[in-house]
Amino acid sequence: MVNLLGGLSETVRWRLLVDAAKKAAAAEGYSLSRVPGRGLSNIWNITKDGKTEMASIRTTRDRFIAFPPLEGGSKWKTLDDVETVIVAAVDSKVDPENIEVYIFPADEVRKRFNASYAARLQDGQTVKDNFGMWVPLDHDDRGLAASVGSGIIDHYKRVASYSIPDLLANSTHEDTSIVESEQQIPDASESALSTIAEVMAWARDRVAQIAGVQANAVKLDLKIEY
Q1: In the chain, where are the structural domains located?
Q2: Which residues is 47 bridged to in the sheet?
Q3: Residue 189 confidence (pLDDT)
Q4: What is the DSSP code string of 115-158?
Q5: CA-atom Rg of the chain in angstroms
Q6: pTM above 0.85, yes or no
Q7: Of 10, 137, 174, 225, which has the highest C-beta tally within 10 A?
């Protein structure tokens, strides 16, 4: 079993997903122009039938999407700035063959993130400001706090599905020609981490959120070999 994305660099994989999102939005009748000066947020103006909105393009290789809470969960970084969320997701995190694209109203995404945030707090979990909080696209029937807010794709079906080999065939496979002039990288809170302790804390929180447990229940070991 060969992971079609496994041999690609992080930048190329991300760019492939973003290109799929843009291609699907264009096929749905939207014209896109990137909002400048937004750093890693990947925000676009999208126009259809004379109406222009702001959209956030999110990419995921595990079928979870993330937005960072702010001010104790009363606000959401990036999400509060847009009317639409466009998501490009692999069809399988283990053996991806296609990239699926979904277009969601931002209000619906906010509602699910608010519910997930509240459920985690009620469960005694700590959700940090300005760190990505993940919610699964697919329905999670485990009944955990981390399950709350899941399953948005049950209500908003995908707008496109593209074969990864076809997308790769239409790209140059080279980082230098795929990365935009602003040198965009995935919009994720871990991009700001600068110490090993911060990375370990982020990884512990990420595992806890996926597993639906408190962070103190997760034990991680780090080994560095030269």
Answers
A1: 10-217
A2: 31, 52
A3: 47
A4: HHHHHHHHTT----TTS-EEEESS--TT-SGGGTT--GGGTS--
A5: 18
A6: no
A7: 137
